[in-house]
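This part of the workshop introduces the protein records we will be handling. A record pairs a protein's sequence with a compact description of its fold. Backbone structure tokens are a discrete shorthand for how the chain folds in space. The question running through the whole workshop is how a given chain folds. The record below serves as our worked example for the rest of this section.
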Amino acid sequence: MPSLERQLSRPSIYSWWSDSNPMLRSGPTINIHAMAKPLMRRMYHRQALAFIARDGHAQPCELSAAAVEIYSSYLSYKYIAPETRLRVLQHLGASAVSHCNTARAITRSSAMTSLIPWMLDDQELRMTAYLLVAALMAHSLKLLLPPEWVANRIETTWIHRGETDERTFILATAALHTISDDSVGTGIFAALFHSEVTCVRLWACALVRELASYWFALPSLIGCVPLEMLFELAIRDPDGKVSAEAIRALDQLARHPDNAAAIVATKMLDTMWDSAELASGACTLICTLISQQYSVYSLLREDSILKMLHFLRSESDINTTIQLLSAAAEHPTGSAAILAMDWPSRIPDFLLANATYIKHRTCVLIQTLVQHEPLIAVHLWEDSIKRMLNVLSDGDTETGQAIFESPSCNYGYQAMSALAEIAQYSQGARTLCATETSRRIPAFLESKNIFIKREAHNLVENLAEQGLITGTVLGRSVIERLGKIIKQEDNYAAFEAVWALSKIAWNAHVTSRKGSQSCHSTSE
């Protein structure tokens, strides 16, 4: 019998099986590897679940660096089912929330390299990956990834898929906040702003706006967002949506004083007056800047305010116009600019609006202007005084039914407050008495609207100091009404009535002494 010899095997990359011919020369054959691949996904899934169960699924334990690397392999291997990656990400996130060492191990592992591609692929995987990054953020850990690579991944994903889900966008904002809070953030935003894809530029502006909506994130965005590039998108981007979103992002950034100063320092506001859309955005941005602090206002060029006032002449939205005029009037320079133009003849017309909030804001604007420029304002505002009296004669306020409970929202209160402010000055008080104000003051003192009543007391006090109450028909009527108020149960109103009567009495005493001294000097 011949000795046993090893037979040469047929070289093949794959393993084949046939039920008819061992030499594989004919008959049906099956690729065993191809048949086993679906089973591989299932086996890997079972193995991953076993690891998760071992580490504690209900209450995840702290994971070592070696364990994190094992889980990371499930994120990068090709034949892993999405369900397996999802469970692994959920387990890593749950452990990272409870254990800082696990979070630190994740940031140093290959999981971070595999995280961004899967974060921006499948919807459910993406949301879970965002939550994992949010868990890492809770421990103030940085995602040290190359900014160009991150920006490229974001842009590539946007080109093929886009992002429309609101919840996912919010989670994406949270995930990228850690990147924006680092020096690499500037490179990421710059790469996104320079993208040739419109939706990427739009999303980048929306991301800045969303990040700036969180007060704790605003300071970190000062040196992170390239403001000049954001202005360039607002001014020169060919897509109107991108331009509008860039303006909204700048407006949101300007709500922090440090950011406001940085925006003003770019000196690019004057370049936004070329079109009506840009001018409207510039007005809104200036309004936000002025509302921060006076020091920011002083950094604004005066011609920016003048351009805004000229633009508002053609603005059809009365609400926007009054809001911006009020913001400009907060500073003496802006108040003087308003009075120097034709606005004194136009602002009283706003009091004829049907909307109550328009009347309210107009009264506040008049009061602010009078505080800065009393003599000029009173000389030009006789028509405003008459129309404010018409506002006070509105049925809602005359019958004492407050339109709003808060005094800051009651336009009747603001109108009376403006009249009291005007009456502080001699010329203003005489202008008031030349109108029908003197006849209506007693009714204002008995108004059921407590805020109008309080400002009416202030008005009487100011008129008394100007010597326009004593010895007049108005004075007798006012004194009679004040006496009735003292007997009422409202202690605050009674106190103000007593104070007003004391002012009237003191003024009468001073006037009497002046008269007696004058008669004495004449007799001599």
